[in-house]
Amino acid sequence: MNAHVAAYPLTPNPKDIMAAFEYDQFVHYLYGDVQVRGEYPDFAFRYFKEHSIVPSFITEEDKQILKEGTVDMYTFSYYCSSCVSTNPDAETTTGNLSIGVKNPYLQASDWGFRLIRMDCAIRSG
């Protein structure tokens, strides 16, 4: 099981949008792809290449082990959300899993989780 922390861009600035996208790729999708598909996603290898990282852990034997060791069920827990920004002066928050840029639209729980409160009515007819 993976702990999922939804990451939203703090602003509509394209840099914040891409930062949130990249956060999702590496914090959520990378591990899910390995567990479910049995292989590392292309974006991971692109990142390795762009940063001159030469992974020594991906031998042909490793690839076979990953492929044969996929999960039957992928689960995740959703506890809270966070924001992502490229602005170094953006207000940050901490508290258990809540690490990142403070979402100005959400209140924090006693544990520091930035929670979404949903008040809604279902109308019939």
Strand order of the largest sheet: 1-2
Q: Give the overall silhouette.
A: globular
How many strand elements?
A: 6
Structural Rg: 18 Å
Largest sheet: 2 strands, parallel
For the residues shown, what is the average pLDDT?
A: 81
Key features of this structure:
125 residues, alpha+beta, 3 helices, globular
Describe what you observe in this structure.
With 125 residues, the protein is α+β, with helices and mostly antiparallel strands. The longest helix is centred in the first third of the chain and has 24 residues, at 14-37. It has a two-stranded parallel sheet. It is globular and about 45 Å long. The chain has one domain (2-115). It is built from three helices and six strands. The model is unreliable at 117-125 (pLDDT under 50). The relative contact order is 0.20. Helices cover 34% and strands 20% of the residues.
Can you describe this structure in just a few lines?
This protein has 125 residues and is of the alpha+beta class. Helix content is 34%, strand content 20%. It has one domain (2-115).
Task: Please describe the topology of this protein.
Elements: E1 2-9, H1 14-37, H2 42-50, H3 60-68, E2 76-84, E3 92-93, E4 100-101, E5 107-108, E6 114-115
Parallel strand pairs: 1-2
Antiparallel strand pairs: 3-4, 5-6
